[in-house]
């Protein structure tokens, strides 16, 4: 069982506490891919992790771009993906047809500038909803307008 309120994602990003202050949700087929994506949007950081098409309680590898941490900069969103030796894992602790919860940690590598973001002590407890990339951009646009 995780210790985070329903509808939230939390983590430590490079040692700094972070939480999804705008929205957190799990969405099937998000980003045009297969599987379930768990997404958290905060004021200047968003985190996305990918688990199985049919998630069950258990461990999932976050290698090969199955997790990303995006950071809002003066130049827009810069993304840091799991790739090569920079990887991580998620453990789903509970899942049903309407919600999913679990924990995660990963290292994301970016190249603008070259840098590694270390995501630790991640937890999520979110509803499962169909969400398009357009819906997510609308959520992000509301954040930008605030």
Describe the SSE topology.
Layout lengths: L7 E6 L2 E4 L3 E6 L7 E6 L3 E7 L6 E4 L5 E7 L2 E6 L6 E8 L3 E13 L2 E14 L5 H13 L1
Antiparallel strand pairs: 1-2, 1-11, 3-4, 4-5, 5-7, 6-9, 7-8, 9-10, 10-11
Shape, per Cα inertia axes = globular
Uncertain stretches of 5 or more adjacent residues: 141-146
Number of strands: 11
Residues in β-strands, percent = over 45%
- Strand arrangement within the widest β-sheet reads 2-1-11-10-9-6
What is the ordering of alpha helices and beta strands? EEEEEEEEEEEH
Q: Please, how many helices?
A: 1
The helical percent reads under 10%
Give the biggest sheet: 6 strands, antiparallel
Structural class: mainly beta
Task: Give structural notes.
It is globular, with a radius of gyration of 14 Å. It has 146 residues and is mainly beta. It has one helix at 133-145; strands at 8-13, 16-19, 23-28, 36-41, 45-51, 58-61, 67-73, 76-81, 88-95, 99-111, 114-127. β9 and β10 form a beta hairpin. The longest helix has 13 residues, at 133-145.
Short description:
With 146 residues, the protein is mainly beta.
Fill in the keyword field for this structure.
six-stranded antiparallel beta sheet; 1 helix; disordered C terminus; 55% strand; 146 residues
């Amino acid at each position: 069982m995780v210790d985070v309120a329903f509808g939230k994602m939390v983590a430590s990003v490079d040692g700094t506490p972070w939480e999804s202050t705008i929205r957190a949700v799990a969405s099937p087929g998000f980003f045009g891919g297969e599987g379930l994506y768990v997404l958290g949007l905060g004021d200047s950081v968003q985190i996305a992790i990918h688990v199985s098409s049919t998630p069950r309680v258990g461990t999932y590898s976050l290698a090969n771009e199955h997790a990303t941490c995006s950071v809002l900069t003066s130049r827009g969103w810069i993304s840091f993906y799991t790739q090569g030796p920079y990887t991580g894992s998620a453990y789903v602790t509970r899942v049903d047809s309407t919600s999913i919860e679990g924990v995660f940690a990963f290292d994301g590598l970016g190249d603008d500038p070259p840098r590694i973001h270390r995501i630790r002590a991640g937890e999520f407890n979110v509803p499962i909803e169909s969400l398009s990339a357009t819906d997510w951009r609308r959520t992000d646009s509301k954040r930008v307008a605030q």
